[in-house]
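Hi,

I'm pasting everything inline rather than attaching a file, because the server keeps stripping attachments. The sequence lines come first, and each chain or strand is labelled.
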Amino acid sequence: MMRTRPLKVALLGCGVVGSEVARIMTTHADDLAARIGAPVELAGVAVRRPGKVREGVPAELVTTDATALVKRGDIDVVVEVIGGIEPARTLITTAFEHGASVVSANKALLAQDGAALHAAAEAHGKDLYYEAAVAGAIPLIRPLRESLAGDKVNRVLGIVNGTTNFILDKMDTTGAGYQEALDEATALGYAEADPTADVEGFDAAAKAAILAGIAFHTRVRLDDVHREGMTEVTAADFASAKQMGRTIKLLAICERAEDGGSVTARVHPAMIPLTHPLASVRGAYNAVFVESDAAGQLMFYGPGAGGSPTASAVLGDLVAVCRNRLSGTTGPGESAYAALPVSPMGDVVTRYHISLDVADKPGVLAQVATVFAEHGVSIDTVRQQGKDGEASLVIVTHRASDAALGGTVEALRKLDTVRGVASIMRVEGE
Amino acid sequence: MMRTRPLKVALLGCGVVGSEVARIMTTHADDLAARIGAPVELAGVAVRRPGKVREGVPAELVTTDATALVKRGDIDVVVEVIGGIEPARTLITTAFEHGASVVSANKALLAQDGAALHAAAEAHGKDLYYEAAVAGAIPLIRPLRESLAGDKVNRVLGIVNGTTNFILDKMDTTGAGYQEALDEATALGYAEADPTADVEGFDAAAKAAILAGIAFHTRVRLDDVHREGMTEVTAADFASAKQMGRTIKLLAICERAEDGGSVTARVHPAMIPLTHPLASVRGAYNAVFVESDAAGQLMFYGPGAGGSPTASAVLGDLVAVCRNRLSGTTGPGESAYAALPVSPMGDVVTRYHISLDVADKPGVLAQVATVFAEHGVSIDTVRQQGKDGEASLVIVTHRASDAALGGTVEALRKLDTVRGVASIMRVEGE
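And the predicted assembly:
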């Protein structure tokens, strides 16, 4: 059964992920060959700094000319683990033009240009796989694309950024503030020197765009994703969440509207019940919760980043793409046939946890409640706490649109008796 | 892109799962056609009792002659949801002989005859898919077979039977005994009138055989799986587990030996730490925890049974098989190239929680500890409790082989001072 001519793999990038891919391709060559039905051979490794010692990567395979590598014409699969938009985008399209299929771990590029890349792959009859782009090692894209292909996904609720989950988990378990928890994450290597992409939700938003696109068979671009970071989450928010049996997570949420006619995608911190399976996702782990018509509630859990886990996802794709190549076929391409409109954030319907600083005098609650009623936002629970002539009101609403809630908050700010809106947080997963 | 000739599907069995498959094939016909690239048509439904009203299944499609249906020659995919060994086995092989691929939800058959069925599929160039056979809607077989195809799986630890998880969860949360919890499970429809297959671990053992085979690329038959039921688990065991920060689950455990040279598969109740992700799997839910070299720790969670969830898995397979058929290829078949030996239970190495009733007098602990030492089983912790002249000793060991532990217990039973061995339970997931 075994074909003897090896499949040739070009590796673009040899950092944390790439070097791990190269290592496993060498150490597990026999297993990979048996699973694919033919040996795979590392045919070239494109890097920026050729001088750096790369254990296990033969020096003669290393090149700084990535373009020449993808143009060689004898490459079966290009593995792109450079990240970023360029030169990755051009290299991938060049690879298709020169007969290679592509495995990528590039969430930013897929979120921005997924449709064009899929079109290029299809035009050349090649595969584009990118399991590693979302939630590292966790099999997620394949299950959504294939296992749930006979089902209707209604909601995807995910912890897809390990750095922010580490910080929020630390705040939750130790009572630390945001800055203190971020400092610890940085010291332990969970946060980068510039943590913006993580803590402001850019990384999660890219993953939300990819997940929403696959889940709803609809093109969802990064620009379509509403994004709020988690830098404003306070120890007081956690205390308030705890009193109500909830915790706080930075979530990527992709939803089909109740009438089925549109979808939304968003990233923001949210309170979820402690009993929700996502609530017990600790440290830098990722997990994605999927709700569908027939399957019900599913969850996929695992390490969302790191060299080895990401390499595991890359190699799973590599095996699949090599198998497709041997049998002369391609796997499922882009599925965007549903082409549902992506609604703006104002249309999202959910519940809200609002903390107000108010004057401690009679009639304040009545005033506040009137404002909610005037905007059609129904109140579920109110908790009032007095302190030194001032008081705080913690209000949890029933389901209301983001637009209605926004109008409510604007009107609340104009009340003389409302000193300030201390926090507004969405309540999900109930 | 859309081919107009529909793919023809024959459905064998129209019970809880089959009727749901038929319903979704009708209500979601357009989605399925878009995802497959061609319409799919229900061409025939084989049932035992043709008179039963089946909503949404046209009467003219119903037949009692399953053999004639699979022999028709124009059937593209046979969906087998009858269960049991015969006639399912003969119908599936007949289907391959007459040109159809097969999607099955039949765990018992796959566990017993998976190798022969895979060989038949391969001989005829057809697909055999069975995601629904293990853990219902949870995508598990596809992730293990495909997503982790570039990784090395070392351990699979799963709650793969919803009935027993419901019973154990009830005992855990309410303090109920086994019989009381079973009665409630029966009343609520979670347990069958004869719960033997569930509570004695037969159902989980079939799934363990299938999972071990796929995870280790090795044939593992039902007979290779060590099986212990959970009918002996007591409220006292839960109390003892709780004192040590653990709970009790019925687990299917598939392991690669530390030297990599052999594998084991087993089903038995086990104590796991409350902090383990499997500990918070409640009610009738299933979850499977996978440990691999590169990906690390992954978990897949969801409903493990029921008509709709199982139908979701069947339809995901149906889409994949139809797509393969359209592109003239087949998906990954059996992968048994590693052909590792399956070791007996005595070779399994784990930790143990042993509860002894002993005489409450000096020197007993020394005697007991000597027996452990003589058998090379090292003790981690001992807890001693006196009650009315008798005492109980709760001992947790370090890692030891099942054979060594068995020898230890046999010797303990011979001690005059040991009145009885109240319980022995393995400790996993630490």
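Chain B touches chain A through 58 residues (CB under 8 Å).

If the labels don't parse on your end, tell me and I'll reformat.
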